What does this fold into?
Amino acid sequence: MNDMRRTEPTVTENTTKMQARKVQVYYGDNHAIKDVDVDIADKTVTAFIGPSGCGKSTFLRCLNRMNDTIDIARIEGDIRLDGEDIYDPKVDPVQLRAKVGMVFQKPNPFPKSIFDNVAYGPRIHGLARNKAELDVIVEKSLRRAALWDEVKDRLDAAGTSLSGGQQQRLCIARAVATNPEVLLMDEPCSALDPIATAQVEELIDDLRSRFSVVIVTHSMQQAARVSQKTAFFHLGELVEYDDTSNIFTNPKDSRTESYVTGRIG
Amino acid sequence: MTLTAFLILLVLAVTGYVMNRRAASALTADGTRLHSLTHFHGLYALLTVLVPVFVLICLFLILETPIINAMVMAGLPDGALDGLDTGGQQLVLAEIRSISRGRVFGTPEDWKLAAADRLVALYGWFDILLIVTVIALSLAILLFTRRRVAAEFRARQASEKIVTGLMVACSLIAILTTIGIVFALVFEAWRFFQMVPLTDFLFGANWEPQIPIREDQIAAEGAFGWLPVILGTIVISFVALFIATPIGLLSAIYLNEFAPHRIRAIVKPVLEILAGVPTVVYGFFAILVVAPALRGAGAELGVPISPNTALAAGGVMGIMLIPFISSFADDALTAVPRSLRDGSLALGATRGETMLKVLFPAAIPGIVGGVLLAVSRAIGETMIVVMAAGLMAKLTINPLDSVTTVTVQIVTLLIGDTAFDNPKTLAAFALGLMLFIITLGINVLALRIVRKYREIYD
Ligand SMILES: Nc1ncnc2c1ncn2[C@@H]1O[C@H](COP(=O)(O)OP(=O)(O)OP(=O)(O)O)[C@@H](O)[C@H]1O
Ligand SMILES: [Mg+2]
It folds into this structure.
């Protein structure tokens, strides 16, 4: 469906949202990411797949500098957002994270009301001039996360009082509310039932019209369903990165083939 | 001699362990499967010997002296104790005992010398009795346990039962002591309230705990209104918390979230040292450094400041409480899951915003619990105020004035020659009871808050 964005080695500059070159990550002596080059295209869903412990989350966290919060993590290489080096000392990680949002594997709603959870980002970034605007943002975000109908009558209830799947959608709404340009999702559906998963996948597809989404997933079907591009990681290396259809039907590397057909991992 | 008894017991118990373990292993030689591991058979023997005989030795030690005393006194010649009250009899006994230890004053009567000899002889007999009993009883139990070794004997359950029993006994001791203390407190306080009406105590604004020493003394009636005393406690605690809470909280926040590792590695141990300083040292600090400094500053500004101010005592107490509050707040902040912090940071919040809007609110119950515990420590703190606060009870809330506290009054009431039958000394128990009720209330509240907050994240 996205043939116009076929990966050629020379991706045109304007469609590339984020560009990673020779990225290395070390946790102390553990070399967790080795020489990874990736171009994240704009308005595209990119899936990261690979066996557990291969460094998908680690690489994802490089993209919004969340690895900065891990003391022993050390990052080398060059990652650019819209051509700007995000590890440049001039770049404020706080502003970067406002542009590159993140949803975590485990739902982590704040111990605040549902409304305050979603309003958190807009408030600290001053996205709403008054309460009415804030209400609009909150409602829109909750609708996009397919949660509005379930919580519209109890926006004052604690976010932690929701079920696991609802909490995860709340976290998605929270991330969407800040209007990021890139949304990173680390196994966002691992706590969800099939219905909620389908809703989130629909949401991801919808989000693609506005920004690029990077999703880590263990489900081949999910990667195949929602993504246009897929990156296969193995033991800290990026083995193969191509259109999703190519990865699943016509992988170039034998490791990719055995993984997507379920032989390793 | 007691030491010997304990040693014998230990040796026999260990023998029992080895014996039963061997016996159990021997059973397995022909392929029998034991219900319990051989180790538990040994343990069963060890515990069954150790526990009862140990208790027996302790009982013996407690009862030995009273029994021997009674026997010696009963054996005195007729008429020796005639006309003596209990105090006099005690004196005679004390003299006999000191003679038996070789300290003879003057020329004691012959019957006292004889009694002393009998005392020594009795101790000798009792020692022999002890050793013989210990050996006999231990051996009997050993034999009994040895005969129980069998493939199907549930040695593990049996020894676990004994261990459980031991633990129950230990907790019972702790609980009973507490109950006993509370009971004594309530009882003595009740005696006080029979002499001084409860309303006078609770609502009286005068605290002059004197009593007439002679019947005809004029300055007779003391006044036992606790208000000025408790007010002093409140003022000093307030000063202390006013200093300790902000400093403790801010240092915890800094250490937890903002401090580089190197600084944290230095400051945390320093705070712990501060927490380990004996309060008497803080007391020195208050009278030798803080109080003179305050008075100097007062003189400079033309404000008369009394030598024992609530400010000095409370301020130093506040310093004492800083590490307490700080470590509590630090724990509470650390207990907030990392995922919340990451979630906030990933939304583009700064560390400050994350702290202010997510971590701190999430930690508040734990922090409040810590502050409340600090309050009850401040109220109960004795040494600093005894050294640095005043003695005169004054109904004032001026921290530059000299005030006294509940704990200081308890100490002064009980110092010196005291007889426990007048309101002056009994007042100490009434004060103690009130203090106990207040701190108990605060602690219960604090623990409830802390527990509630644990439930959220566990
Ligand atoms: N905070 C950390 N501290 C130290 N080592 C880490 C840390 N996080 C990850 N690692 C190490 O980095 C490597 C990659 O981990 P990562 O979490 O990125 O794997 P993953 O591909 O996301 O796995 P999964 O699919 O199980 O989530 C692992 O070897 C892991 O031990
Ligand atoms: Mg992961």
